[in-house]
Amino acid sequence: MKTDRQNGEARKFDANFKGPIHNRGCTDVLCCILFILFLFGYFAVGLLAWSQGDPRKVIYPTDSRGQFCGQAGTPMEKKPLLFYFNILKCASPLVLLELQCPTTQICVETCPKEHLTLLTAKLSLDRKKQDYYRSYCKEGTNFTKMSAPDILSQGLCPAMLIPSQAFTHRCLPALGTLKGVVVVGNETSLADNAGDQVNATQLLDAAKKSNLVVEARQVAMRIFEDYTVSWYWILLGLVIAMVVSFVFIVLLRFLAGVMIWVMIILVILVIGYGIFHCYWEFASLKGVAGADVTIKDLGLQTDFSIYLQIRQTWLAFMIILAIVEVVIILLLIFLRKRILIAIALIKEASRAVGHVMSSLFYPLLTFCLLAMVIAYWAVTAVFLSTSNEQVYKVFNISAGEFTRNSCVPESFSPNNFSAGTLDTECRFAFYGGETLYHKYLIVLQFYNLFLFFWCANFVTALGQVTLAGAFASYYWAFKKPEHIPAYPIFASLGRALRFHTGSLAFGSLILSLVQIVRVLLEYLDHKLKGAQNRCAKFILSCMKCCFWCLEKFIKFINRNAYIMIAIYGKSFCPSAKDAFFLLMRNVIRVAVLDKVTDFLLFLGKLLIVGIVGICSFFFFSGRIKAVEETAPSLNYYWVPILTLVVGSYLIAHGFFSVYAMCVDTLFLCFCEDLERNDGTAERPYLMSNNLLGILKKSNDTTKTVD
Predict the structure, then answer these.
(1) What is the mean predicted confidence (pLDDT) over 557-564?
(2) How far is Cα 554 from Cα 514, in angstroms, rounded to an integer?
(3) CB of 391 within 8 A of CB of 431?
(4) Quick one: angle between helices 501-527 and 441-475, nearest 10?
(5) Cβ–Cβ under 8 Å, residues 390 and 431
(6) What is the pLDDT of residue 403?
(7) CA dihedral defined by 675, 677, 564, 477, rounded to 10 degrees?
(8) pLDDT of residue 601
(9) Considering all CA atoms of the chain, what is the largest pairwise distance in Å, rounded to the nearest integer?
(10) Smallest Cα–Cα separation from 370: which of 468, 475, 453, 260?
(11) Beta bridge partners of 401
């Protein structure tokens, strides 16, 4: 047939085929060698980064000479805070956090607590006041003998001190409000040396984005407090989610059909209750003062419970849940016939998981390996980003900016750069370097990210091919469980590592290349956001969309290719081709049956998340009177609820991912079974009687498979 030529030839009957082939050889050896070489390079980059990096640059602030404030064993050990001579020049929070503020910075013991100008301190007869001001000047400054103009011209002391408070080891203005007016140290304005008034609002403008960070820190501290008093309840909730997921999987083993329909009904009821609750909250806020304020008018608030006190929030929740409810009901109506076949496939998957119970614990190995990969990448990235050296530049004091000239602080002479004036100084500018290592630092970061993608995808691929081999052994066993090999998970894992490391590395490499291109597109989009025109923005958006689709397609092909590798032991490309043509020959079943099964499994995860989420909502919000005193007192009760929702979804996903891989493997085996066999005594179908009945097929033999 024409279709056969386009989509490859159908599988032919082979009397010797009994499932995953044991006599196989190593595949994609070249890619295996390449992967090992890249891993050695990855370890070399890590060792190089660990020898050159200095995480203290992240922990400790750095003064204008590149010294770490508060570092033990240094002269700055007792000076943990960074003080800015002129905070008004630090308008951007990025400037503050990256230590690029164009003003002198020194390490101090404490932040200033009172307003004081240099001229006032010089004219004061109070020795303590002079010593106090001197503590915020550069070391070695002859405060008593030098005049105020000389001190300021040489940048030895700040022009004035303003009340400040420490935040992230930096002294920032102690801004506040008094009767709705911005104040600093209870003063609305401060006088400088020239007698000019510096309004507190100016200081607010200079540090306003830093205050956003302060507010974020306050929210973070409240969230941290909530975790400290509710962590054991969260842990208990995650254990309950794990138990519910496990019980759900066990019940699927024996009552798959009933459980699927119960699950569908419960999901509809849970979402329906969510709609009712949102409407009840929306109606109860009618006429309440301030409840009609819009979210746009409310703006960003650090106390998120405020949003639950306005009607528009509950209206938005109600609309979203109603849309989800309608979509699910419509899908169930139009796919009702395919749902019966999907349920039969899930029943078969339940039997497979029941015979290979160790598969439920395999995701723990995948999780541990992924945690190791993520930890290695994160540590290496931190060490690489902190492996730059201190770069000093000539700073023009009057212009308030760095020049292009580099300098050495110990041998710096202003005469060499400013025609004999004292208007320049050698100041720490940033971390960088001129060595070969520093020139290619961005390349090493790119290499670190690329190998992270490659290793993470390899670990995922190893899990998929291991589970696929185990479940394929179940399907092709004529008598179950007698013909199922002992320890199928370990046998499949051994075959994957011994023979197919290269194929797994090949598939992971293709996916990693697409992912790294997506990262580069996001990087370009970020860099060109301010300069690009509409045409460039459109092209970039199209490219991002295309590569997103390409990544999804490659993941789909890889997943099915790994199943064929686990069964036949071929290399990646032939396996991907065989899987693709097999799916194309059964394109209707793929488009409907396989996706319906995925949809039903997603409803299972949604049900578990919904049960845990609703129970945690009533518990932590104090809606249940019986446990109201038991529930912890929280700043934001949504913190443990959101944590439990995300955690329970990940736990449910871990259990159901085994089911999903089982279904995909059985689906490919099911398609091959239809091509290889015809139901005669010599070529009986190996699928269950339930599937045979739904497909209106039968085995003309007394040896049928239950």
Answers:
(1) 91
(2) 9
(3) yes
(4) 140
(5) yes
(6) 60
(7) 160
(8) 79
(9) 113
(10) 453
(11) 396
